Amino acid sequence: MCGRFALRLDRPRIRHALPNAADWEDEDLFVPRYNIAPRTYAPVIRRVQSDRDRDVLHSMKWGLVPHWSKVEDKSLNTTNARSENLVERGGFWAAVKGKNRCAVVCQGYYEWLTKGKDKLPHFIKPKDDQLMLMAGLYDHAIIDGKSLWTFSIVTTDACPSFGWLHDRQPVILFTEDALNKWLDPSTQSWTPELTQLVQPYNDKQYHLDCYQVPKEVGKVGNESPSFIEPVKERKDGIQAMFQRQIQGTSKRKRTESPPCHTPPPKQEQEQEQVSKKVKHADSSVTPSPSSPRKQTPKKSSPRKVAVVPDKGKITSFFRKT
Fold first, then answer.
1. Please, is 25 exposed, middle or buried when counting C-beta atoms within 10 Å of its C-beta (0-12, 13-18, 19+)?
2. Taking all residues of the chain, what is their mean pLDDT, rounded to a whole number?
3. Among the ranges 95-104, 253-262, 281-290, which has the highest mean pLDDT value?
């Protein structure tokens, strides 16, 4: 299944990346987005049937409307076309699968991983950041006197390396030869070669990246460059927030308390020496065993200096630590 994809590149960059498609029909209908949803316009590559060597870009609406339709039926679920249904004879796709094949242009597509009641969106894209071409079907209808071009994305069983994410994935045209075979309308029918093309892709030939992205991409209309960035690497992500908190706490600790290897200030060293002298003098006084409560040790000014300030500083140091 493929229910969302991304193509945020500006039109000149798309043209530059696809030099074989010189013309772009209905170019103004396409708005670059990080979150392309069904019933919005996106560019596809199709081969002009009167000139088999000429490919054109064409902005079409996602969700195929059959050519015989008099109205745009929004209840019709044609976002995807299952490859198994294309291989079989007849069926809904029989009129278009032989000659109306196209390639949907994108930077990558989104898929949701179900974990209990939670659904976690993931973005799948080429590792080399090149454009991805997904196999599609298209049709042309006249609705209310206006021309309407629409498309569907062909899906197949997920390859073993992506089975953990979802049981379906788009058919990816990962070589120029695959693209040419898919776009070629000369046969006007479905062939064994086309059946081979819609098999799950071999990840040894075409390498993909897959990572979790923000949940906000699930809402139609939301737009953000963060939708195609890994959650772990986002500057506004949860991990980044915790990292900032850790760094802030570490900075406060360094400010409030000196490192373990830092020698004590000169004043503390002098007080420590005084404390040692007082303790030494205090150990020479032996209290009377018969009346320990009545006998009080001699008061001396050094003892006051040793007890109060020194204990206060040591206690506050460990509390901060």
1. middle
2. 80
3. 95-104
Contact 55, 47 (CB under 8 A): yes
With vertex at residue 260, the alpha carbon angle to CA 258 and CA 265, rounded to the nearest 5 degrees, is 50
C-alpha dist (Å) from residue 25 to 9, 37, 45, 117, 266: 17, 20, 10, 43, 81
> Per-domain residue ranges for the chain?
4-114+129-202
Q: What angle do CA 48, 45, 111 make, to 5 degrees?
A: 150
Name the least confident of 11-20, 33-42, 154-163, 254-263. Answer: 254-263
CA 224 to CA 152: how far, in whole Å? 25
For every residue of 64-116, DSSP letters joined together read ---TT-SS--TT---SEEEHHHHHSSSSTTHHHHTT-EEEEEESEEEEEEEET
Q: Are 152 and 117 a contacting pair, CB within 8 Å?
A: no
Q: Which long-range CB contacts under 8 A does 258-267 form with residues at least 24 apart? A: none
Q: How far apart are CA 303 and CA 181, in angstroms?
A: 97
Please count the residues of the chain.
321
Question: Is residue 45 over pLDDT 80?
Answer: yes
Angle, alpha carbons 245-246-248 (nearest 5°): 65
CA atoms within 13 A of residue 53's CA, in its CB half-sphere: 0
Q: What percent of the chain has pLDDT over 70?
A: 70
Right CATH for 4-114+129-202 from 3.30.420.40, 3.90.1680.10, 1.10.3720.10, 1.10.730.10? 3.90.1680.10
Q: Residue 45 corresponds to which amino acid?
A: I
Per-residue pLDDT of 223-237, as tens digits, reads 999 999 999 865 554
What amino acid occupies position 38? Answer: P
Percent of the chain with pLDDT over 90: 56
Q: Sign (positive/negative) of CA torsion 25, 31, 33, 35?
A: negative
What is the reported pLDDT for 127? 92
Q: What is the pLDDT of residue 50?
A: 76
